[in-house]
Amino acid sequence: MAGRRTNLALLGLLAVSLATGTLAFGVGAAWGRWVAVAHGAAGLALVVLGRPKSAVVRRGLRRRRAGRGASIALGVLVVATVLSGLAHSAGLRSLGAGVTAMQFHVGSALGAIPLAVWHVVARPARPRRTDLSRRTALRAGGVLGAGAAVWLAAEGSVRAAGLPGAGRRFTGSYEAGSGRPSQMPVTQWLGDRVQDVDPAAWRLTVTDASGARTLSLDDLARHADRVRAVLDCTGGWYAEQDWTGVRLDRLIGDVGDARSVVVTSATGYARRFPVRDLSRLVLATAVGGAPLTRGHGYPLRLVAAGRRGFWWVKWVTDVRVDAAPWWAQPPFPLQ
Question: What's this model's pTM, rounded to 2 decimal places?
Answer without folding.
Answer: 0.87
